[in-house]
Structures are given as C-alpha cells and as structure tokens.
Known about the structure:
Rossmann fold; Transcription Regulator spoIIAA; 4 domains; six-stranded parallel β-sheet; 36% helix
Amino acid sequence: xxxxxxxxxxxxxxxxxxxxxxxxxxxxxxxxxxxxxxxxxxxxxxxxxxxxxxxxxxxxxxxxxxxxxxxxxxxxxxxxxxxxxxxxxxxxxxxxxxxxxxxxxxxxxxxxxxxxxxxxxxxxxxxxxxxxxxxxxxxxxxxxxxxxxxxxxxxxxxxxxxxxxxxxxxxxxxxxxxxxxxxxxxxxxxxxxxxxxxxxxxxxxxxxxxxxxxxxxxxxxxxxxxxxxxxxxxxxxxxxxxxxxxxxxxxxxxxxxxxxxxxxxxxxxxxxxxxxxxxxxxxxxxxxxxxxxxxxxxxxxxxxxxxxxxxxxxxxxxxxxxxxxxxxxxxxxxxxxxxxxxxxxxxxxxxxxxxxxxxxxxxxxxxxxxxxxxxxxxxxxxxxxxxxxxxxxxxxxxxxxxxxxxxxxxxxxxxxxxxxxxxxxxxxxxxxxxxxxxxxxx
Length: 442
C-alpha cells in the first residue's frame, strides 16, 4: 500500500520551528512519507503563528492557499496546529470549514492521529493546556545542517501587558539540564556547528526547576560536553543580565559575543504600562554592563512603537535613546492590539497611521546607525561560518558572530576553492552594503 504523503508549512518563530521538527519526527515514526512538494501531498500540516495581527493574517492566508489545493489538486486533508490553533480553535472550526483537524500547542504529540483523521476525511480536534504537555522530543531538523535551535523552556511568566504568549503557551517551564545537554550532543553528531538557545525568556531558565537562574550553568555544561564551536543566546531579558552571565559571555570562547536583548521601549511610563520589569534603569544598566565588560559584544534589540498611551514625548525619548545607545542590530514593530491581553482595553490607543509613521521614523534612524556600523568592518578580518554559494553573485555567503540566522545580515565572499556549508573561514571585509558585507578569504 502506498504511503500517505505529508506536506508541512511552518510559520512564526524558531520556537515554533522546533515544534514542527518534533511533529515531523512523530509523523516519520508513524510511517508517513514527508514531502517538500505541496502539490503531491495527501495531507498538509500548517504550524501557525498568532503572536501579532500580521502573523495571524499570514497564517490565515496560508490556510486559504492550501485550501485551493484541496479544491483543485490531490489534497485530501488540512491540519492546522500551533499558536493559532491553540488560541482560536473555535473560530477556525466556524470560519474555515476547509480545515479537517485542529491541534493546539499542548497537543502536538497527537499529530499522527490528526493526520490520519484528515486523510480519511473525518474531523479531529485536540486543544489541551500547555502546562500538561511533555517538553522536548526527537526532531527532524529543518534548518541547514550546520546550525540548529535548542528550545530550553516553554511558556512565559513575564506577563507583559501586550503579549498573548502566556495565554497560548502557558506558564514558563524549563527543560531538565541533562536532557538539554544530551540533545546538544545529538545535534553535534548530526553536524551542527552553531547552537542557538531559545525560549520565551532564556535568562529565566532554571528558576522553576532549580529555584535559581541556571542559564550560565547550562552553557558551561554544553561547552564542556560538546565541541560545538558557536553557542548563541537569543531572547534575553534586560533585568536578568547578571554579572555571572556577563562574565561567561566575556570568558567563554565558544559562547559568541552576541546577545539578543529585547528592550521594547525606554520611557518609564510606557515600560510600566507594558509591565516590563526593571524599567529604563535595568535596560541602561544591562547595555552598560555588557559593553564595558565584553569586548566586541554585538547587541541586538527590538522595540514596540504606538503602545497605548505612548505620547509624542515618549516616542521622542525612544528615538533619542536609539541614537544614543546605537544598537548593532535592531528591529521595531507597531503595537498589535491582542484580545485577552491587558493592553487591549487600555486608553490612549494610537491610530494605525501614526504607529506606521513612528515606525518608519525609528527605522530610518537605525538604518543610518547600521550602515555606519557596517562600514566600520571594512579592512577587518572576520571568522565566517559558510552557508552556501550564491549563483547570482558568484560568491559564497555565510555569517560572522555578529549575525544570527534569518534575522541579521550575511557576509558574501570570494574564494579560490570550494567551501562547503558548515566550514569556518577567515574573510577580509572590503565592501559594506546596507545590511550585508562583502570580502574575500584570507
């Protein structure tokens, strides 16, 4: 009997991508055939995002696109899982009849049953609380073989007033350290050269399990028990940048001198309304501590503009802050009004047009900073992890320690030999572009 073929669409953040990889492994073990060609799939699984309005729109558009294959192609069933399934299961059932199965984030272990039902034309729904769901699991890695994400915790306890993640993903739950170290070893055996530690708040790791922050101990154990050359920290909160963490960034040669530090704003009034702990003092202190103690540290950050009650003076304060601290990497977003969150009903909602204007202004400021910082690399030699060959430019490309995958820039380089993906090379930078760098192998 011919195997049922499963197509997969994964949307949203790297944490969602790890869930996709767990589900792929479960389906593979259940005997399904995985295909990258949606047109030949019998069932398509869409792992959705519902963090902000634009993510929800992308998820809905993907469902509607796939529904066309059900009308006009071989497709027998559609399974919707992930954050949107967890948060809006009733609405999906009511408004998207094309969807055959709904699997929430707390039910991903049931993906094989959902696919079976969808393939047979019957309905399936499982939306369980995340707090009861097992963590971790075997994965089929979907990133290029030289890097992978390690999800060290699930859920969030920070309760920022704009964020629906605690409603969707449940309370913060750390995975046991021994389990994470074993997974890191498995990833190393598969060829991983860069390991990115992710969670809703990586700096909180261990507090629920061990009664204290354990991120540094986890990093040290992964460093001791693997030889993975690069370990990178994502999603670190400013109020938890401890002296111990700063010291580890400074002294551990394999923990890359890069930190993802979402600040969200600098106005104390706005930060209080957002329920961001520590306020502007924690933000400034974290940046100062990192820059004074970790030579060459790259700080990536994000901010939200147009939060309810954000006055023009608050926004100007944010602009001046960005000019002052000059983040190495920076992204900004307009506030997305999410039902069920405290900010949804706050007074002083900023009009969409004004939010967009503020976003454009802030990103213009950052673009100038970024271009100037990029020019400062000219003449320097950077260690680059090769990721492939670009046919259009005739150059290889990769990333230096200053760039995380998917969100930051690339380094393009000329080479007089074949350079396989996953190899580290030294590249002397000769040209700075808007976001990328160009050079040649030394």
